[in-house]
Description:
The chain is mainly β. Helix content is 8%, strand content 51%.
Amino acid sequence: MKHYIALLMIFMACFSFGQGNLKFESDTYDFGEIREEDGHVETTFDFVNDGDKPIKITNVRASCGCTTPGWTKDEIAPGGSGFVKARYNPRNRPGRFKKSLRVTSNGLQKTLYITGFVKPKPRNVLEEYSISTGNLRLKHRSLNFGKFTTEKVTEKSFDVFNAGDDSIKLYHELMEVPDHLKVVLVPEKIAAGEKGELKIFFDPVKKNDLGFLSDNITIQTDSLLTQKNQFYVISTIEEHFPEMSAEELDRAPKLQIEERVFDFGKVAAGELVEAEFNLTNQGKKKLNFRKIKSNCSCVAYEVRSKDLKKGKSQLLKLKFDTSGRRGNQYKTVTIFSNDPVSPTQMVTIKGTIQKEEVNR
């Protein structure tokens, strides 16, 4: 037994000390502030092998495709030196950054870091207003209203620029805009080379919907060069509830959902997953379900009634068609009700869909 322990100690000593080691002068390099328009920057991490065995770098993996590594390919003897290079591309990456390089050598790993701040490249007006519909140019194709309620008409302005040689105005007769939206140009006529605003008015009562919404509109000006171009008005609408006293809130409907997440585990693609959620009105007035929406057309829902009297419960039944789907799934269904405290609530079904089994 004593001989065994002695041999084990000798083996461990050989394993512990009989190897090479990369000793870097520093494991982090800060480029400081760099300009996007100046292009690539590069730094070198120098190291020595302060171990007692030769060592060889087998791989250097960067955390981002924007970082290109390079390294000493030859084996480095004890006391010898080498390098790891990191080349960073700041194009289209304004702001602060921190990227890593994982260095693998003879089974050992070491992580290096490059940091810095990219000062954005100054953009000309055409780059800033990159989306065009003829000579009228906008910054984005998606016109985001954000979140608002059904209380009143909401308006929002989006910057535009006339890139043509003549003044332009909207040609409303050829535009396609839903009834709940109104689009105007401010000023009504924009001179060549001038900026203005595209103002959109959103009437949530006419829209008569809740939750996340996307509306398509086409915009056209009176310029002969103009072609109709489609844009997307994105919004999230919630029902407006007037301010209520504590007594009024106590009498109001109140939606209670017992379990909000159903985990179906693992199923084969093509199976129909069914889930049930118990909905209860714990308030003193009738609960009304305004809307029920799934984030995927693959999930269908069913409720017995859109109204629920005080103290009563009913099931929300979901059916998830897994056909053509694979991997981890996370589907949500949003319930909009007249509960003034929590008018928007959500339930979730999740799990993993495996490859469809083939019968042989």
